[in-house]
Design brief:
The chain has 249 residues and is mostly beta strands. It is built from one helix and 16 strands. The chain has an eight-stranded antiparallel beta sheet, with no helix packed on it.
């Protein structure tokens, strides 16, 4: 029997905070991750989707939300409890969305948000702050690497963003902009840079325009797009801004 089938079979309930849509709870993961099932509601309270991939309904699942301040190791010593979610009932093979009972008063966009989901008797957490080795643990820390797609401006121009890790904490950033209804092979912008917390900012000269790009990570899967342009020979001219939202592919 394959490892993942054996591990799931021995648990009546099998709780998972997914690292990806096809995650079935096999651990350890190959690399650290930031779960797409963790986010922050409009009122500032963290939220999470928890799955039960077992064959028995899970009653009284306990959800805990923690923060690790930016720059500190992710461990029990540095984790600070934000709050709890209401005890959950999760049917077999289904998921439930749970919101923290407290607002997360974030000190920095580089803070790490951790969530644990457990059932003390049927499926307890083994490694409370290890999202790589414990399927009960999820982590959100604004990962830049990935692909994003969105629409900007009043004419809803389609744009795509590719971000890949480079050396020494840098990222290779490519921005593509739709031309005549098609996405070109060559990027409009191609840079290597380091984010400033949750923001990528750079300048381009396009014809006679100086354009400043600001891409701001709102949460794991969404970023805001802002391009501010001025004529090079008219520094006092009013700025023209183009805005939009991009979602992780």
């Amino acid at each position: 029997m394959q490892r993942k089938s054996w591990e799931r079979a021995r648990h009546e309930c099998f709780l998972v905070i997914k690292a990806a849509a096809d995650d079935v709870g096999t651990r350890p993961l190959a690399t650290p991750f930031a779960s797409s099932d963790i986010g922050v509601a409009a009122d500032g309270r963290p939220r999470v989707t928890v799955w039960n991939l077992g064959h028995k309904e899970a009653h009284g699942v306990v959800i805990e939300f923690y923060v690790v301040p930016a720059g500190l190791p992710v461990n029990a010593e540095n984790a600070q409890l934000i709050g709890l979610g209401n005890p959950a009932i999760i049917p077999p093979g289904q998921s439930i969305g749970i919101t923290c009972n407290q607002v997360w008063r974030r000190m920095s966009h580089a803070d790490v948000l951790l969530v644990t989901a457990s059932h003390e008797e049927l499926d307890a957490v083994k490694l409370p702050f290890d999202a790589v080795r414990d399927r009960h643990v999820g982590q959100m820390n604004y990962p830049w690497a990935g692909s994003f797609t969105g629409f900007i401006g009043s004419d809803e121009l389609k744009v795509q963003l590719e971000v890949k890790p480079s050396n020494q904490g840098l990222f290779k950033v490519k921005l593509f902009e739709e031309v005549a209804g098609r996405m070109p092979s060559f990027p409009k912008c191609d840079r290597i840079m380091k984010p400033n917390k949750n923001t990528l900012r750079w300048m381009e000269v396009e014809q006679n325009q100086k354009v400043i790009y600001d891409l701001v990570m709102q949460e794991n899967n969404r970023l805001s797009f802002l391009a501010t342009s001025r004529p090079m020979d008219q520094p006092n001219a009013p700025a023209v801004q183009v805005t939009g939202t991009m979602e992780r592919d």
